[in-house]
Amino acid sequence: MSLRTGRTARAGQYAALLCYLVFLAFPFLWLISTAFKPARELGSLHPTWIPEDPTLDNFRQAFDEQPLLRAAANSLTAALCAALIAVVIATPMAYVMARHRGRLSTAATGWVVVSQAFPFVLVIIPLFLVLKHLHLINSLWGLILVYVVWSLPFALWMLAGYVRAVPPELEEAAAVDGAGRARILMSVTAPLLAPGIVATALFAFITAWNEFFFALVLLKTPEKQTLPVVLTHFLGAEGVADLGPLAAAAFLATLPSLVLFAVIQKRITGGLTAGAVKH
Amino acid sequence: MTLATATTRSGRTRPHGGPGGSRRRDGATWFLVLPALIPILILSVGPLLYGILLAFTDAQSGRTRSTQWIGVLNFQDLLHDTLFWDSFRIGLLWAVGVTVPQFVLALGLALLLNANLRMRWLARALAIVPWAMPEVVVGIMWRLVYNPDAGILNETIRDLGLGDGRDWLTGLATALPAVIVVGVWAGMPQTAVALLAGLQNTPDELHEAAALDGAGAWRRFRTVTWPAIRPVALAISALNFIWNFNSFALVYVLTSGGPGGRTRLPMLFAYEEAFRYGQFGYAAAMGCVMVAVISVLLAFYLVGRLRGGEDA
User: Fold this and answer.
1) Where do the domains of chain B lie, and which CATH numbers do they carry?
2) Nearest-by-Cβ selection for B117 from A14, A23, A117
3) B295 and chain A: CB distance < 8 Å anywhere?
4) Phi and psi, residue B237, nearest 5°
5) Which branch of life, at top level (chain B) (predicted)?
6) Is domain A66-278 in CATH 3.40.50.170, yes or no?
7) Cα(A57)–Cα(A96) distance, rounded to whole angstroms?
8) Helix (H) or strand (E) holding A44
9) Fewest CB atoms within 10 Å of the CB: A122, B58, B138, B218?
10) How many CB pairs under 8 A join A and B?
């Protein structure tokens, strides 16, 4: 291959990469730009990329218009509880799925796959009826239960991958030394799994924090609603004046997910493919 | 690295046999499994089966009269419900329209990220944004972009002298394409990262050998790269198709199904049927039809692809 073609190919690659960068970044930059623009500029017919007169008014107004703090507290409660419960119950099951081949593991893996294919409508109606029966409609606890089950397929998949990466020889060696099963799990396996468990919990947190559909259906009163549902209330009365607070609130709601996701991204992709290769 | 370790380890994994007695082990296994199994049965497997049963009843919300079995009546009604089939057609258009460009663009991005380029880290960092962002925020954000007056899209069009722009999300002709672009944007990075993981699993020596043999970039892609990432590509595109077909929040926020039902995806249609009009049984029947059609389509896709692989 001659140097010349190599160089033009390189230039083409950089041009393509630039297009991707622009496509990925511009909507987000526009959101940030809108969030910091004063109402006067938002009403202008020639909006600019960089606010001429940047302001925090939109953020203040967003908190005045909608109960964002309460919504954020609801979201935080739901996401934290769901993530914790999910990893606590998923880790032992993932261990069994990874280490024991049997009907149970096959069925669990089958459920993980099938649960991805079912549309939420088919699940949400009976779920709604079941939760109503348990008096868990319009309650954060009902939502938390749904989030736990809803994040389990992913958590099981990830965690089973991490368990497989722990050499069984380590456990066998501990067993030879006379350690009991519980002891082996707690002092040999669990520490090695810890980073994977943390990453899985954070991912479950992000999914619950971002979730909209179940929250929309299951939470009726405004005091109970989570952040994504409250965000859509800004859309209710449509007018140019509302764009600023809308952008400001949307930007704030995204920050936790972005920060946490940046922390765990490498681990998540590694775990996803480790699980995928197995099957 | 993770991939390699995972495969070799799992290759060696044996069921923990040996002394201890199988009955005691079974007890311990159940103890480990039950905390997850019970919620799964009550809140996932149960509702799924219950949902299928509901499709054969006249269940409605907030009704005092007891629910009755009505056999396949819902399905018969559904057969003649042109609104539903319109929505279904839009759903398929949307799912294909999002999944295909998503895959092509993601493959391009993955190949670029795998090449030794300087700005790679920035692309990797930006790829996180659509992936991590709440769908509701993605919708809100693109509404700001598409906004007819204060949006950057129309402003750019005006700056370039290409006219006054238009009201993208409320125009009958532009609404669905505009929404599809958002869907592509939202799902592309995740697909790219999955494909990138597959690419990084391709042995470099094969590439070098093919290059020495004088194979051009395209031939090397066809003969070395593609076979290596094929399983990942197959899995991720099938999953993307399902996820896209079942998507809800994005379009709910962008257009709520409008204008005139042009973007009313089946999920939105069923949601309205169930929670606005309270027709639980009918909406459940819609869900069943969606599952059935999607399963058949996917079965054809996967079988076709797998056959194609044997020929190649």
Assistant:
1) 81-311 (1.10.3720.10)
2) A14
3) yes
4) -75, -35
5) Bacteria
6) no
7) 54
8) none
9) B218
10) 303
B118 token code pair: 């300087």
Is residue B58 helix, strand or coil? coil
Q: Given this model, what pLDDT does residue A48 score?
A: 83
8 Å CB contact between B77 and B281: no
Ranges for all domains in chain A classified under CATH 1.10.3720.10? 66-278
Listed residue (A268, A121, A6) closest to B55, CA to CA: A121
The CA distance from A222 to A70, in Å, is: 9
Using CA atoms, how far apart are residues A89 and A27, in angstroms rounded to an integer?
38
Is B297 near chain A, with CB under 8 Å?
Answer: no
Do residues B140 and A247 lie in contact, with contact meaning Cβ atoms separated by under 8 Å?
A: yes
A232 near B CB under 8 A: yes
Pairwise CA distance, residues B100 & B301, whole Å = 13
Distances (CA, A) of B270 to A119, B79, B106, B257, B298: 10, 15, 31, 12, 21
Rounded distance, CA A4 to CA A166, Å?
48
User: pLDDT under 50 in chain A at which residues?
Assistant: 1-4, 239-241, 275-279
C-alpha A32/C-alpha B133 separation (Å) is 14
* Chain A from 65 to 84: CB within 8 A of any B CB: none
Calpha distance B81→B266 (Å, rounded): 13
| Residues forming a β-bridge with B57 | B69
Q: Give the residue from A46, A87, A121 with the most B CB atoms within 10 Å of its CB, the best one to mutate.
A: A121
Residue A76 sits at the vertex; the CA angle it makes with A75 and A79, to the nearest 5 degrees, is 80
Q: What is the CA radius of gyration of chain B?
A: 24
How far apart CA B77 and CA A101 sit, in angstroms, is 45
Number of neighbouring beta carbons within 10 Å of residue A23: 17
Q: Tell me how far apart the alpha carbons of residues B310 and B9 are, in angstroms, rounded to a whole number.
A: 28
3-class secondary structure, B57? strand
Residue A145 near residue B298, CB atoms below 8 Å: no
With a pLDDT cut of 70, the percent of chain B lying above it is: 90
Q: Amino acid letter at A161?
A: G
Distance CA A172, CA A178 (A): 10
Q: For chain B (length 312 residues), average pLDDT per consecutive 10?
A: 38 42 64 89 89 90 78 90 93 95 95 86 87 93 89 88 84 93 94 88 77 80 86 88 91 88 92 91 92 87 72 44
φ/ψ of residue B57, rounded to 5 = -125, 170
Is residue A130 within 8 Å of B51, Cβ to Cβ? Answer: no
Which of A166, A206, A272 has the CB atom closest to B194's CB atom? A272
Instruction: Check if the beta carbon of residue A230 is closer than 8 Å to that of residue A67.
Output: yes
The residue type of B16 is H
Interface test with A, best of B1, B7, B8, B9 (most A CBs within 10 A): B9
